[in-house]
Design brief:
Elements: E1 2-7, E2 10-13, E3 18-26, E4 30-39, E5 46-51, E6 57-59, E7 67-72, E8 77-82, E9 91-100, E10 104-108, E11 112-117
Parallel strand pairs: 2-11
Antiparallel strand pairs: 1-3, 3-8, 4-5, 4-9, 5-6, 7-8, 9-10, 9-11
Length: 118
Amino acid sequence: QVQVVESGGGLVQAGGSLRLSCVASGTFYHINTMAWYRQAPGKQRELVAGITSGGNTNYADSVKGRFTISRDNAKNTAYLQMNSLKPEDTGIYYCKVVALIPWTRDYWGQGTQVTVSS
């Protein structure tokens, strides 16, 4: 099994910054994609950013230029640096890990709350 744990959420004023971390642990052959999703109250969960094991990244249009995703493959850890935060960035941020165990399967963390005050 694979465990996914997020950390780094909190309360910040608009214009501020936060850095989220996602650590994958357990038994697997390889971690393919690591991605951050968020879910605002009353809304569907949406993709924020993703990164492959080779370092290719993709971002939601709403966060391009403000958020940066990175990963440390040796530590099975992904990061989400969030700058110039806006109230609309508020939500629960979830990390999804695509692991090869040996078949490919998605694993989700419990989420970390991000609240941006205006």
